[in-house]
Write a structure and sequence with these properties.
By secondary structure, the protein is mainly alpha-helical. The protein has 5 helices and no strands.
Length: about 80
């Protein structure tokens, strides 16, 4: 058992040669952003996209619109 003051990423760095597959999974799981801001931004964009004039958008089309809206102008025209 480890204490709560130990950084789990540092511990997994020490064990990456013993458990290489679990190490990859731990890097993915322990690097999750601990904030709801990205999710709230997405809901805000979705609310702005799905308005009275666009009330018949399918979920697939909505997903594509939100994905494309995430690109900057430089990424679109480079």
């Amino acid at each position: 058992m480890t204490s709560l003051s130990v950084d789990p990423l540092e511990q997994w760095e020490d064990m990456k040669n013993v458990f290489p597959l679990l190490y990859k999974q731990a890097r993915i799981n322990f690097s999750v952003v601990a904030s709801s801001v990205p999710c709230e931004r997405l809901f805000l964009k979705a609310g702005a996209t799905m308005n009275q004039a666009r009330n018949r958008l399918t979920s697939s089309r909505m997903e594509k619109l939100l994905f494309m809206a995430d690109f900057s102008e430089d990424e679109w025209f480079s």
